[in-house]
Amino acid sequence: MSSLNIAIVGAGIGGLCAAIALRTAGHQVTVYEQAKAFMRVGADINLTPNAVRALDGLGVAAGVRRSAARPTHRISRTWDSGEETSRLPMGDEAERLYGAPQLTIHRADLLAALAEAFPLEHIHFGKRLARAEPLGSGGVSLQFTDGSETAADVVVGADGIHSAVRTAMFGAEQPRFTGVVAYRAVVPATRLAHVPNLQAFTKWWGPEAHSQIVTFPLNQGKDIFIFSTTAQASWHLESWTTQGDVDELRAAYQGFHPDALALLEACDEVLKTALYERDPLPSWVSGSCVLLGDACHPMMPFMAQGAGQAIEDAVVLARCLAAAEEPAAVQAALLAYEAARLPRTSQIQIGSRGNQWLKAGGNADWVYGYDAWTVSAA
Ligand code: FAD
After folding, report:
1. 159 Cβ below 6 A of ligand 1
2. Which of 45, 173, 224, 293 has the least C-beta neighbours within 10 A?
3. Is the pTM for the entire model greater than 0.90?
4. 82 SS3 class
5. SS3 238
6. 129 CB less than 6 Å from ligand 1?
7. Rounded distance between C-alpha atoms, residue 135 and residue 285, angstroms
8. Ligand 1 atom nearest 161 alpha carbon
């Protein structure tokens, strides 16, 4: 089989998973990333069993488990009385049910585990895509802001919520500010020893639609991640590194149960970002360009599926392109990928926006039981 020359724009979670999967499928893959190097920024990621199973098939299971924690349960509690409204066993039980556990990990550690599985010399840093244009021959020309150019048979836009590839394919359209901000903090577990269920994923459901506190273990349980959201229409800054105000954080959750407040009390510092999203996109393919991850389905974090869906996309895209050589077969493969993935990610995007996931019931099978390696993608 003659391989395709595939350019991936973006070395985030989705881009690196696609790079590993497409290279394993026999293609020549080059990744173009705007950052100068991998940097330790980003949120701590809750990888649900569907995401972990997709990752395991990429051959990165050991690397991902090196620093990850393995939450014992997924619990919902009401903000004031603390009553448990849902409790799913995770860990071994998730592994038995879904073939993989839930893992919680810093985004940078996940990127490091993925980067180990792909040759560094095929990742070009400091390459910010400016334009992508179809070539008469059927391929795509890529132009970068440093003036350099390249061409590829297929371009994968894995360049996140502000995707330049998406703009080149479908025109400019800005993501929408949701009116919601997120706070993030990491605290040593020893400082929270008095809080119950510390090694579980717990979500405290607040009185307003987007008022919530989530906590889960990190670094094999040595640290505890605290993530909270609340409405704040005046704050528009989208950032992985901007410091928030700890007093403002605590003030936003007055009246919450003492177990939840104890989490906030333990925070010395906190990061703050505005949350943006988009509506489901009707098509992910234009000519030889295709999108995955946040480039085509950025979503609210309320089902913890943004990265998981990007990982699933990468696996299914590589499966669809595995045997494609001729332009007609490549087109068919890209459309098969879109058909296999778009309904699921749209449902999850809309579900995340509604923020009711596992609030009071407990069946997570349609999300956690999905297997990107075997799902029909003809
Ligand atoms: P990104 O991670 O955004 O990567 C895009 C890459 O493309 C970046 O490296 C960027 O530098 C590069 N790039 C961008 N533009 C260009 C360009 N023009 N040229 C070249 N390179 C470019 N998901 C979960 O599954 N679980 C969670 O618990 C979770 N929690 C979250 C919490 C918060 C607060 C937020 C905001 C998101 C959360 N997510 C979570 C979502 C998750 O972070 C994203 O869905 C995921 O990172 C998307 O991966 P991606 O590879 O598609 O895009």
Report:
1. yes
2. 173
3. yes
4. coil
5. coil
6. yes
7. 16
8. 3
